[in-house]
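Q: Sequence in, structure out?
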Amino acid sequence: MALQGDHRARLPHLQRPLYQEAEPISSKPDIPQQNQLPNTMAERRIQAEQPREAKVHTETLPRPLERYDDFLGQFTAMGQLPPPILENIIAKEQAVTSPRFLRFTCTQCAIDESTQKSTGLPLAAIWHPLADICPGEDPIPILNKIPFRCNRCLAFVSPHFRFVEGGRKCICNICGLVQDSPEEYFNDRNNKPELWAGTYEFIAPEDYSNRPPMAPLFFFCIDISANSISLGLPQQILTSIKGVLDYVSFPERCSIGVMTFDTSMQFYKIGSTGEVSEILVTDVDDPFIPESVAGLTYNVAEQREQLDGLLDRLLAWDFTQPPKVNLSAGAVADAMKNYLLKGRGGRVLIFTSQLGTVGKGKLTNRVDPKLFNTDKEKTMYAPLENYVTLAQECTSEDICIDIFLCSGQYADAPSLAALCSQTGGDLHYYPNFNVGFDGERMYYQIFRTLTRTQGFQAVMRARCSNGIAIDQYIGKFKRKGPVEMELACIDSDKTIVIMLKHDSKLQEDIDLHVQCAMLYTSQYGQRLIRIFNGVMKSTKMIPNIFKGGDADAIANVVARQSAYSIYEEAVGTVREKWHASMITMLTIHRMTVGDGEVNKILVPETLRMVPLYSNTAMKLPAFAVSGVPIDARLFSVHALLGMNIRQTRMHFYPSIYSLHDISVQPQQPGTLNNAEFLILPNLVPCTLQYIQSNGVYLLFNGEVMLLYIGRNADQEFLQNVFGVPQFDELSENPELWALNDYGNDESAKVLAIIDEVRKRSPSAYPSLHWLFEGKGDDFILRRFMVEDVTSGEISYSDYLLRIHKIVLNKIAERRG
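A: Exactly. Output:
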């Protein structure tokens, strides 16, 4: 939420930080083996607090602990480094697209490819086409006619077209062609948004699409096998659908259907008198569904009574003697594609609880323990070819697939992920699904899927000005020809990485342009084309490249490059390449600034978080060395491929808020500042060293919210906030785990803080989990302690020391 306030310049600071003053480091810091890791939280804290050799002052390490509670005014994209991704701003476009929609890894790039590669920084743009616009920002202007396009490269007119000869001629900023201007452009240019707005859109001509605009349709496919019934999965899904119906976007245009499956498929239709008829399809290899999609779906606004009646009947349905095995997600998706949604399109949500071993696309266990930690390990991460083909066919039919995988056993996530990613959908993973722990999270993810901004039947592409070119796209889409992407659905959580490359040497200090275009169907039924215009500068000065670097964008791009590489290279190789690029950056930077003090760890000020993100990313399931189940690894890879920058920022370094001392913190957390913006509590580093036994903390990683209560938490605080003064009484009675207003200042503030953190979530509204020190498994807490040692990965402080030593050695080698 962005609010009005004083404008403050957001130019990058140029001074170099001093992270440590210490003796030269050891090149081989101790790494505990898995069986040497401490088993209890107390032991882990003791380990974290144990004094090290004089190496690094951990309290001064670079960390993203800014709360961004103050509103920092308006930001204009022209010529400025984008503000930190969590900062509160109002973006005002001045001929350049807002960084909410298009954000570069570097605002300045090298004049040639070799120089750019020598910096270790990727050259890329992150395109977020349906990013939410904050209050106070101007809406995207809609043109009342089709804008002019370049006759040669077909780029759309933008504020960067140059008009010459009194406006009678124009020069394309993408290809440089000089051409005649349409008459209206040299007679009246001031009232044309395409000549001053960085982002604009217009209604697409009819000949831009061979299908009519698609109305939103969501079809829920629910596993009712014995395993699913025992987990309580059908009841949770049906209850969640009922809870979301009042909030569905554009309910007058949106339709919802429900089917179930085990070893057969069951479709349901409710009659005018409320009776439910079941259509049983037993031939799953060649299914016949004797009903149209219109007869099996219900408009949320006009047929709400029937839809509620159907859900109520299914909730009361007696699923007796369910089989132990079930259809594969591929069989369900294939049936929906060929026999129900063909020529119609829609979003299909498949909920499955185990490996689908029946029907088309049946799955088998492809895990081979002998392949782990070898070059052939990647073969287990490759999806089955028939799933890739099915996904491409679904996209061609405008069908998007979401899969909710609720299995603690192997279920071939690589193939399921391909079915989702190629259609623009999501894979949601719930290992060992538990209704009590995961039910709320599932509800909020269903809620997000049905209520967020989304477009359908999308075709996307980018164009670059002379001297640079598109290298590749990374994201969740189907490739359509050499330069275009196709998606059945694009939503406000998805981004596309556009990897750029030099195709010739550039002149110094010139503008480099990237124009992105997306044809899509909006939720209100219009076929629109949205245009985005981004600009970089060329430079031959390496320090300028570092000063224009965006750490959040770089971390997002490198993570997604690396995740994409998991399908082609061994995990160890992927990790080595990531570290090598960062070491290259630090080496070139130190050599450029010419600082000879070996006890300094020098990192460019704008990129000071890159080493931290590099270390914490290696602890994600996608990149962890060993001990990660295939499904968990591929879910992590799939999630990274489409993440927006806010999500990766929280994913790499969660926020830990100190609640127990809000009454004595400066600026009074839980209250509003002068700009009517809620002030959040102090942030705590993500290491057990800072988690105190007398503390109460709120932890959030962009997906899960955790309320952690220390054993020695102040009794008065517990009484005020939770209504119970004793730690043991609160921890042993789950019925007391509720957030209520107890009519005092601390209670009101804590409720306001939790609500505000949830509102700032970059994706689904997060579920809240409770954890008490010493009570049960603290695995979920350790997920947030990203600075600490994990099995196979060293701590953040030791990591800095190790790469510092490597950098010094490399410089010594270069200088001979």
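Residues 217-334+341-363+401-409+421-452 form a domain with the Rossmann fold fold (CATH 3.40.50.410).
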